[in-house]
Design a protein that fits this description.
By secondary structure, this protein is α/β, with parallel strands linked by helices. It has helices at residues 33-43, 57-63, 80-87, 110-120, 184-193, 214-226; strands spanning 2-6, 27-28, 31-32, 48-53, 70-74, 97-101, 104-106, 124-129, 137-140, 144-148, 158-168, 198-202, 208-210, 241-243, 248-249, 254-261, 266-267, 272-278, 283-284, 289-295. It is 20% helix and 31% strand. The strands form 5 sheets. Strands 1, 4, 5, 6, 8, 9, 10, 11 and 12 form a 9-stranded mixed sheet that branches. It has a 4-stranded parallel sheet with strand order 14-16-18-20. It starts with a strand and ends with a strand.
Length: 296
């Protein structure tokens, strides 16, 4: 199974933090999100993973340097979700490719998604769910995707949200002009106009979040550090506090609710932290009192 991770975005909603790291390399409880995504793909049976990179791409290259099954497609210009896939088209041959956004945390079974696509006969399978904040994919009878947003259509349709997980037959990518910025959704509009088929695969009873804003990023940490279920995949007895390797705290430091401290971070004496994520190597001055904050 071939797979691609879309990791080239600018992450403008996460400024100023994306001036320091590309969004897919944001640490989630001490580990870059991108490394979790590539591990999920391996576990699902992918033997060939392509990651595209544009913003701060040298950091993504360095982060994946030891991953021999991962190739980084460096993009000097911003190409968008469609343009990046079009550039990679020749890497996929004639086999479907599983595509995952590089800014989502989820527990969806992508191996099953790939299998369902192969059995469907569709040109594209989009994994959908009901998430009112993002519901903008029009789905009609038989879970056929018939449009996007609130565009008028010929068929009655309900709206669902795209999870950022999809399987694409590579021939579809030839609808995208080579070498320019293009959105994959615009490609799908062209596909529908030409009579192509896009199948919606609806998932329920799953965990998913888009790490699009600072509030989303903090909320993900709250869920992971306080959940009492399978989401907590690391040993963490007692209170919901994570400390990375060689992180240091001065005297009289207090943590409240939940806190995640990255490796080699230094928390000065007398600090109080409540719902705070501290990145690797960050320094918090003595006496600081921080709430609902990211420290980079």
């Amino acid at each position: 199974m071939k797979a691609m991770v879309l990791a080239a975005g600018l992450g403008t909603r996460l400024l100023p933090f994306t001036l320091k790291r590309p969004k897919p390399l944001f640490p989630v409880v001490g580990r870059p999100l991108l490394l979790r995504i590539t591990e999920q793909l391996r576990q699902a049976g992918s033997d060939s993973i392509l990651v595209n990179a544009h913003h701060l791409r040298e950091q993504i290259v360095a982060a994946l340097a030891d991953s021999l099954d991962v190739v980084v497609q460096e993009e000097a210009e911003e190409l968008g979700t469609g343009g990046g896939l079009r550039l990679a088209r020749d890497q996929f041959g004639d086999q479907p490719v599983l595509v995952v956004n590089g800014d989502i945390w989820h527990d969806i079974d992508v191996a099953e998604v790939f299998q369902r696509h192969c059995e469907s006969g569709a040109d594209v399978t989009m994994v959908l769910h009901d998430c009112p904040r993002f519901n903008n994919v029009q789905v009609a009878g038989g879970l056929r995707v018939v449009g996007f947003g609130h565009e008028p259509g010929d068929l009655p349709a309900s709206l669902l949200a795209f999870t950022g997980i999809q399987v694409i037959n590579p021939a579809v990518l030839e609808l995208i002009p080579a070498g320019c910025f293009f959105n994959i959704i615009d490609c799908y509009r062209l596909l529908l106009e030409q009579g192509g088929t896009i199948k919606g695969l609806v998932v329920r009873d799953h965990f998913w979040t888009d790490m699009g804003t600072p509030a989303d990023y903090l909320a993900l940490h709250q869920t992971l550090l306080t959940a009492k279920n399978k989401l907590r995949s690391w040993p963490n007895p007692g209170a919901p506090f994570f400390m990375g390797d060689n992180a240091r705290c001065g005297a009289d430091v207090k943590f409240h609710d939940w806190v995640a401290i990255g490796s080699n971070a230094l928390i000065g004496e007398g600090c109080e932290l409540q719902r705070v994520v501290v990145w690797d190597g960050a320094v918090i001055p003595s006496g600081s009192k921080l709430i609902d904050t990211i420290v980079a």
